[in-house]
Amino acid sequence: MTQTTDQKYVLQLCHGYQMPFLDVARQYASLFDATEYKVITAYLTGQKDQHVIDNSASDKVIFLEYDSKDIRGLKLKQIKQIKQLHQQYNFKFAIAHRYKAIYILQFIKGLPVIGISHAFNVYQNRTRRWFTTLNHKNLYLLGVSNAIRDNIKQQLPSFPQQHIQTLYNRINSDEISHSQFNTAEARKALDLTSDRFVFANVGRLHPDKDQKTLIDSFSLISDDIPNSILVIIGKGKLESELKQQIQSLDLDNRVFLLGIVPEAVKYFKAFDCFVLSSDYEPFGMVLLEAILADIPIIATNAGGAKEILADKDYLVNVGDSQRMAELMLKVYHLDTQEKENSCNKNAKRLNNFFTDKAAREAFWKLDFVQDIIQNKSD
Q: Which among 66, 118, 92, 117 is positioned nearest to 11, based on CA atoms?
């Protein structure tokens, strides 16, 4: 049954709500705050969950409750359900996260769809390239960084290039800032003493995050900074390999793998320097969290990471352990003013580009969004 009111509805279709995608859903729903649109968010996978409802920032949340295996193949059942939702609400347009959601929405005739890509090489598959290009008329694509946007353009050369743009990921800066413990509290929680200079990394123990290079870098400066330690928060398939590396470098009492720390962002003020060593980084959300902790940051120039940091002096080429070590030593010797200057540069860029407010302004200025709401889509 179609809604009989003049209310305007937007559908947000998500693969699931496992982190970080619950916050992603919140981010995109918040684009419509104080507008004439109501947002209905539907999750393809995952059981009904009140926490998800409360944190989706949506006017209505729908759980389709499939398993991942249920949304393989042609997805005919899911397409039918979304068509029924469209008949009920007559959506003005839709936002789709990840390729399966984008694919499903292509079967809703005449519905403009904004597809969000959160990773590289989404369109590497030939069939995906063909299908996406075929359905270009009402499809618009957003990368969460310029690096992803450019990757999409490269893989979809026949897709209208003006329909491929960037909308950065963003962070609820006020909420996270208020949640972060001060340095003393954070160090106590992580069992870190006050006399240590703490280099830190947070991320999966995975080749993409390249903590191996970071450990090598730390080994190069460990003698120069005897009171320094390196802590790595996260779990993953490389844990055993990294432990062996630490032992072989005789760094058992200097490098610590802390495993999974729930809500790790709360403890970032325990660190004196955050180091992102990734060789593959579609965006780099953890950098935004580190910026809010007001600590110096070193990062590889991989993917979206170089778009986040304003202080380019602390970018390093992927895999360059020598240069990373030099920058770690440089950060250790920063005086208070130099540290503040670096942190302030990054904070200013965060406020200008990576907040809900900044994203909302950027979204509504996109040419194809204006065309959609004015019914001028191709």
A: 92
